[in-house]
Amino acid sequence: MSGAPPQAGLACPRCARPRPAAAGWRRVCWACSARDHRARKRARPSEAQRAQGDGCASDGGGPAPLPSPDEARACARCGLALDGRRSDARCCGARCRAALARHGPVSRADRLAARWGLLPRGLWRTPPALVAAVAAELGGAFGLDAGSAGDDAVAPRWLTPDDDALVASWAAACHPEHRRAWCNPPYTKGAGGAGGAGLLAWVEAGVRARDEGLVVAMLV
Q: Whole-prediction pTM value?
């Protein structure tokens, strides 16, 4: 009966944790229930992801695939990459967890800038409406975002600072069905590699991609 009290001596079917006599849970234990709740919450797209999907329509009429949330996972305080850590981890260690509890998270731009050694203004997002307008002018969706942070890509494929877009082949990385590349490069001089060429180095990389057969749009 649904109104019967929970029986002691049974175990959680998920983790086999024994049920204490005073436990109030009926099917799975509280720990497994909380874990399921966090998984469902992570699976729901955020407002930014939904807006990005609406603003980047492919030639077929549907939105381009959104980047995986794991592409740019970083510590909420220091920006260190969280590769290899639990999917629900927010910090890289105890010190950052304590700082997060005291002062709260830093902004996305500050966090990623610390991770890659850039200035925060070099990681500002591009308005989706602007990208959509340029894509319509060029005749279709972009197949590559050459200046992305991973979580803000406006194309099905992208290059992050880990990929070093100044030397990587944009043509090889671009989606084969959408031979158009978008690039909103960081405007800081230190973002141009060891030589510090800044924006000029990005323009030269875009010219090389143009010579390899891509249509390139740069926000400079």
A: 0.55
Check: CB of residue 142 under 8 Å from CB of residue 180.
yes
Give 157-199 pLDDT, tens digit per residue.
Answer: 999 888 888 899 999 999 999 999 999 988 765 554 444 457 8
SS3 state of residue 62: coil
Query: How far apart, in whole angstroms, are the C-alpha atoms of residue 155 and residue 144?
Result: 5
Measured distance CA(6)–CA(23) in Å, rounded: 8
Q: φ and ψ at 18, to 5 degrees? A: -65, 145
Sequential DSSP letters for 60-97: TSSBPPPPPGGGG-B-TTT--B-TTS-TT---SSHHHH
- The count of C-alpha atoms lying within 13 angstroms of the C-alpha of 149, restricted to the half-sphere facing its C-beta, is 28
How far is Cα 89 from Cα 80, in angstroms, rounded to an integer?
12
Q: H or E stretch including 217?
A: strand 215-218
Specify which residues 145 forms β-bridges with: 158, 182
Cβ pair 70, 87 in contact under 8 A = yes
